[in-house]
Amino acid sequence: MAEPLFGRLMTAMVTPFDDQGQIDHGAATEVARWLVQEQCNDALVINGTGGEAPTTSDAEKAELIGTVRKAIGPDVPIIAGIGTFNTAHSLELAAQATEAGADGLLVVTPYYSKPPQDSLLAHFTTIADAVDLPIVVYDIPGRSAVPVQESTLLKLAEHPRIVAVKDAKGDLASSGRVMAQTDLAYYSGEDNLTLPLLSMGGVGLIGTSTHFTGAGVSEMITAHADGDHARALQLHRELEPVLTGVFATQGCLLVKAGLAHKGMINNAVRLPLTVASKEQSDVFCGLLDAAGL
């Protein structure tokens, strides 16, 4: 199997904040390096939902890309989240991310507006026509209210700059049909479905729990690619409590609790999010400790 453009493992990195609610660029540097050097990520997603992109300004988004680029160097790809429910604003963010040094763009299905499929096709292709970077379509109807239907994905796959899908639809049969008919690189958007998606032709994971499980997930993906399915299954089962447990509440809340537990960041988020409860944090951090993570 050919190596996909961005590698096989990416983490949607959280955005650390200080006690005043400003981006903590020192902590962001530490987390980015941790993800690459210790958690075996091939690329990083910056300014995604897990990075609280809805509550960071455009200027903050550009600054964060610059910080992460300095932290990880020129050879590790950065995929910038630029999707909004406003196509014109998404185009502005795409241009900004390109200038800031991104290597690819993550474009989520427009949320709240509930556009029909022909409108989705126009949204994604308008962005793809206007940029020079490859695009990952983020299909997550649980947040956007609208799935990207198979017929729409087949049309999007014809565009030379639409190269991949972050698949958080939870419909493996549908994803399998699209993979069978296109060259789109499918990344699981649900950590605990990575191995099933791999078995159907997926290439890897854009993860949340991979702030902690990255090394193990990377080994699982490699084992599967090498045909060692028993080892891949063993690793999936060992990691499954954390792969699933990170979503006991909004994922970035537990990631931040876990990173704070490790002393890497301040446990702070921006409204409308509030930090995970002590009970939620204790349960998740207990899972990390039990797994040796």
TrEMBL record:
Active site: 138 (proton donor/acceptor), 166 (schiff-base intermediate with substrate)
Record InterPro entries: Aldolase_TIM, DapA, DapA-like, Schiff_base-form_aldolases_AS, Schiff_base-form_aldolases_CS
Alphabetized SUPFAM superfamilies for the sequence: Aldolase
Catalyzed reactions: L-aspartate 4-semialdehyde + pyruvate = (2S,4S)-4-hydroxy-2,3,4,5-tetrahydrodipicolinate + H2O + H(+)
Superkingdom of origin: Bacteria
Transmembrane segments: none
EC number(s) reported in the record: 4.3.3.7
Site feature: Part of a proton relay during catalysis: 49, 112
Compartment list: Cytoplasm
Class of this enzyme: lyase
One MF annotation (Gene Ontology) recorded for this entry: 4-hydroxy-tetrahydrodipicolinate synthase activity
Pathway: Amino-acid biosynthesis; L-lysine biosynthesis via DAP pathway; (S)-tetrahydrodipicolinate from L-aspartate: step 3/4
Gene Ontology biological process: diaminopimelate biosynthetic process; lysine biosynthetic process via diaminopimelate
Cited function: Catalyzes the condensation of (S)-aspartate-beta-semialdehyde [(S)-ASA] and pyruvate to 4-hydroxy-tetrahydrodipicolinate (HTPA).
Subunit relationships: Homotetramer; dimer of dimers.
NCBIfam families documented for this protein: dapA
Similarity comment: Belongs to the DapA family.
Protein name according to UniProt: 4-hydroxy-tetrahydrodipicolinate synthase
Name of the encoding gene: dapA
